[in-house]
Write a structure and sequence with these properties.
Elements lengths: L2 H32 L3 H17 L2 E11 L2 E10 L6 E11 L1 H6 L6 E7 L2 E5 L35 E14 L5 E14 L4 E11 L5 E6 L6 E9 H4 L9 E2 L2 E12 L4 E18 L7 E13 L4 E10 L2 E11 L5 E14 L12 E13 L4 E13 L2 E13 L2 E11 L2 E10 L6 E12 H7 L6 E14 L4 E13 L2 E14 L2 E11 L2 E9 L4 E11 L14 E13 L4 E14 L2 E12 L3 E10 L5 E9 L7 E12 H7 L3 H6 L3 E11 L4 E9 L8 E8 L2 E4 L1 H10 L1
Parallel strand pairs: 4-6, 5-6
Antiparallel strand pairs: 1-2, 2-3, 3-4, 3-5, 6-7, 7-8, 8-9, 9-10, 10-12, 11-13, 12-13, 13-14, 14-15, 15-16, 16-17, 17-18, 18-19, 19-20, 20-21, 21-22, 22-23, 23-24, 24-25, 25-26, 26-27, 27-28, 28-29, 29-30, 30-31, 31-32, 32-33, 33-34, 34-35, 35-36, 36-37, 37-38, 38-39
Length: 730
């Protein structure tokens, strides 16, 4: 072995002995210090310094050196100021300056702390509000980025590195049971007199859940951080205050943050966010239809510390795609105000926006407009186009109008709807912030469908026809008042043509139809109507002029086929819908009851669904005479009305009377003018009759001959005296 090698080995042994001796000496020194109160005194000195700077209460029960530069604290508890939370620290490893320890100086002796399995129990949800303070990288009282590193804080220039290993945060219900638990790991740097926090890395993982949060310093810059988050959107979004409109779904987000300020008062200087939510819903109320489902939501946004610019916001569900962009800025009272441009294509309503089913809106839609207002009261406004759908549950081929949708309700202006030749224009609003919800709608119709309008207004009436005019709805759901000024044409109710055209003012509320100045036309006839129609009460004035009376048309559409003609009449419709009663005066007309003519009727009459009562009604009838009728016509709406009439005859042709009774042969043998009484009864198509007449010759020379006979079954029945009278007359 060379001399050089022998020398090297000798020196190496000496160095090793010296090193071992030094380690042994340090170990002996540390062991010796552990036998004294120095470790606990140092630990409590550090705790007092932290209490003075932070206001926290810290209790240390034990401490010992594991080497001259490492101090382990045991049984440590920490309580923040004014809070009931308590952090339990089974073990705290502290890196110390050995020289300061040996010289008995505690200030600045600690430069690193490692918290091993700390446990923090807080009230449910409260600790998450503190997450915003963790990245605050600037010194207390200073707001400029770049001043957050410990060597730049000024003051005492103190700094302290803190590491959390396998920590636990438990959220407890008021009763004390654990609601949720988190694993926490991270590193941070405390600096300056105000102990500002410069976070280096923070990792949160929900125990038994899917939420993960990671925050780490970006590129070595003290005030810039990268973040990643994943988990349910309904849990993560409230962390940053976005809980006014709830979003559900699986969220993945990443981006960068740049902050300034102190831990107690952090400030955002800039941010960039990319987020994606899958298979979720966007909700803005408590009802099940106050939400919209989506398959994918993608957000790209950036901030200058005050205003958020939404560079891209896209939602997709099947063929439906919604895109938005704009700005969000702080508003009055600390709320966020949004101003976003929005466009949507391929909407399938109400699937993609269930709230519109409240007013029967469906079809393929497009939208272009804005979202504006505070986040807890956003308003969607713009132009909505609709094809091959429904409005108020009624079919619409095309529709377009200006709308405004909010948590309070739905408003539309100049909304034009077309179906076939019909055209409708709507203005108004539906307020669902009231209970029940309230409608205030004006509708203008041109060639509108009467049946569709009645169904849209939930009126169960079998009616068809065309409508021109203006309708107005106002009131709470279930008690809406409908009024208008309109003209209708070609109306059929229950398949019956009641009139050709009608116009006037009307209103409908609580099952009551009120008519004012309504004028109807049927053929050459006109009708004027005023009053109220209800199920339990009818009160309507009726004035008819030359109104057709024939089977299959008009208000008396169910008349038997043997009743026809026209009539002028004035009276009132009273009673109920099941038992109506029309009473008034005939003012003229031309009627036929089977084979019985009735011209120029004048007098009082009462009409019910079962019977026609005549009281002194004077008509010109068979034989050219004037007849005054008293009695009834029962079953007047049937095929076989029955007559029971007492008739006063004046100046009627006797031969005419006989011919109307089907007695042609006697009518050829004898004639003259008769006055007297008749009683007509039986089937109106072939009634029976009894006659008590005074027959005078046409010249009026002789005395009138009294005739008493009857017609039964179409045959003349003569008494002996009647036969002798006829023989004398012949």
């Amino acid at each position: 072995m060379s001399e050089t090698m022998r020398t090297f080995r000798k020196n190496w042994r000496k160095a090793a002995l010296w090193l071992a001796g030094g380690v042994l000496a340090l170990a002996v020194l540390a062991a010796g210090l552990n036998l004294t109160g120095a470790p606990l005194g140092l630990a409590r000195g550090v705790a007092r310094a932290i209490e003075e700077q932070s206001g926290w209460r810290i209790d240390v029960r034990g401490a010992h050196f594991s080497g001259l530069s490492h101090l382990r604290l045991t049984e440590v508890t920490a309580r923040p100021p004014g809070a009931g939370a308590e952090i339990r620290l089974p073990a705290v490893d502290v890196a110390v300056d050995p020289w300061k320890v040996l010289t008995g100086r505690t200030e600045g002796a600690v430069h690193a702390v490692r918290l091993v399995r700390p446990r923090l129990v807080v009230e449910e949800g409260t600790w998450r509000l503190a997450l915003a303070a963790l990245p605050a990288g600037a010194a207390a009282g200073r707001g400029e980025a770049g001043t957050s590193r410990p060597e730049q804080t000024g003051g005492s220039g103190r700094s302290l590195r803190v590491e959390v290993v396998d920590g636990t945060v438990e959220e407890a219900a008021p009763g004390g049971s654990t609601v949720r638990a988190w694993r926490v790991d991270g590193r941070a740097e405390l600096a300056g007199d105000g102990w500002s926090i410069a976070g280096e890395e923070l990792r949160l993982r929900q125990v038994g859940g899917t939420v993960e949060l990671t925050l780490r310093r970006s590129g070595g810059r003290a005030s810039a951080y990268e973040f990643e988050a994943k988990g349910p959107a309904e849990f993560l979004l409230p962390l940053v205050g976005l809980d006014a409109w709830q979003v559900t779904g699986s969220l993945v987000a990443r981006g960068e943050l740049e902050v300034s300020g102190s831990a107690a008062s952090p400030a955002l200087r800039g941010a960039r966010i990319e987020a994606e939510v899958r298979d979720g819903t966007l909700a803005w109320g408590e009802r099940s239809d106050d939400q919209a489902a989506f398959e994918r939501l993608v957000l790209e946004a950036e901030s200058d510390g005050r205003v958020w610019r939404i560079t891209s916001l896209a939602l997709q569900r099947g063929a439906a795609a919604v895109r938005a962009g704009g700005e969000m800025a702080p508003g009055p009272g600390g709320s966020w105000e949004a101003q976003l441009a929005v466009s949507a294509e391929g909407l399938d309503l109400p699937r993609d926006l269930p709230v519109v089913q409240r007013f029967g809106l469906s079809g393929r839609g497009r939208f272009s407009g804005t979202v504006s207002g505070s986040l807890d009261s956003l308003v969607l406004s713009g132009t909505l186009s609709l094809e091959n759908g429904t409005v108020w549950h009624r079919p619409v081929a095309r529709g377009q109008g200006s709308i405004a949708l909010s948590r309070e309700g739905f408003r539309f202006d100049e909304a034009v709807l077309e179906q076939g030749t019909a055209r409708y224009v709507l203005d108004g609003e539906v307020r669902w912030d009231r209970t029940p919800y309230h409608l205030a709608i004006e509708l203008r119709a041109a060639r509108g469908s009467l049946s569709e309008l009645l169904k849209a207004f939930s009126l169960d009436v079998d009616a068809v026809g065309e409508v021109d005019g203006r309708l107005h709805l106002d009131g709470p759901a279930g008690a809406v008042r409908l009024e208008g000024d309109a003209a209708v044409r070609g109306v059929r109710i229950g398949g019956v043509r009641y009139f050709d055209r009608a116009e006037g003012r009307f209103s409908w509320q609580d099952g009551a139809l009120a008519l004012a100045g309504v004028r109807a036309e049927l053929g050459e006839g006109t009708a004027a109507l005023d009053g109220v129609l209800r199920a339990d009460r009818l009160d309507l004035s009726v004035a008819l002029d030359r109104w057709p009376v024939e089977a299959g048309s008009g208000p008396l559409a169910s008349l038997a086929s043997g009743v026809s003609g026209w009539v002028s009449y004035a009276g009132r419709l009273e009673g109920t819908q099941d038992e109506p009663r029309l009473s008034g005066q005939f003012l003229g007309g031309q009627l036929a009851l089977g084979r019985l003519p009735a011209a120029a009727p004048v007098g009082a009459a009462v009409l019910t669904p079962e019977i026609l009562e005549l009281n002194g009604v004077s008509v010109t009838s068979v034989g050219g005479g004037r007849y005054t009728l008293n009695g009834t016509v029962t079953g007047w709406r049937t095929e076989s009305p029955r007559l029971d009439l007492d008739i006063r005859v004046e100046e009627a042709s006797f031969s005419g009377l006989l011919r109307e009774g089907g007695l042609t042969w006697p009518a050829l043998l004898i004639d003259g003018t008769v006055d007297g009484q008749l009683k007509v009864y039986g089937d109106a198509h072939r009634p029976d009759a009894t006659f008590d007449l005074a027959l005078g010759d046409d010249l009026g020379v002789g005395e009138p001959i009294r005739l008493q006979f009857g017609i039964e079954g179409g045959r003349l029945k003569l008494s002996r005296s009647a036969l002798l009278s006829l023989m004398r007359a012949g």
